[in-house]
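hi!! sorry for the late reply, been swamped w classes. u asked for the two structures so here they r. pasted raw, havent cleaned anything up. first the sequence of the first protein and right below it the tokens
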Amino acid sequence: MTQKIKLDDNEYEVENLSDQAKATFASLKFADTRIQELTNIQSLLQCAKNSYISSLKKEILSSKAGFLIGED
């Protein structure tokens, strides 16, 4: 099966593109892949940040209350 790219409303087969267009297409694929990787990393870091905030809130409340909150 041939690889295709759709630009605007036109579809092109990658194998029929010029060498320069193929190189540009490869760069586009690389950029898309890297953006997805960075988006995934951002999501993981946001989860970690939320966990750190939650832990910090518990620690602050525990120190004010004088006993541990949320610990078994």
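now the second protein. again sequence first, tokens right under
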Amino acid sequence: FFAEVRDRGCGISDVEEAMRPLFTTDPENERSGMGFTIIENFMDSLRVKSIPDKGTRVVMSKKLSTLPRQRG
């Protein structure tokens, strides 16, 4: 399984910091900052590339099965 999400939003100035558990840019509204942490725990691979004022690209992959396919 492979998925890619892109936006043309404000971007992330420090991706490494944003990927730390509990990091949030909005602590007044009780944000938990767990988005990237949760994705990392469910995916085999997560790559985030972001350019401030240009947007963000997130690429995720997950191997769904190691069993050989059975034919009918």
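hope this helps!! also noticed smth abt the second:
The chain is about 15% helix and 30% strand.
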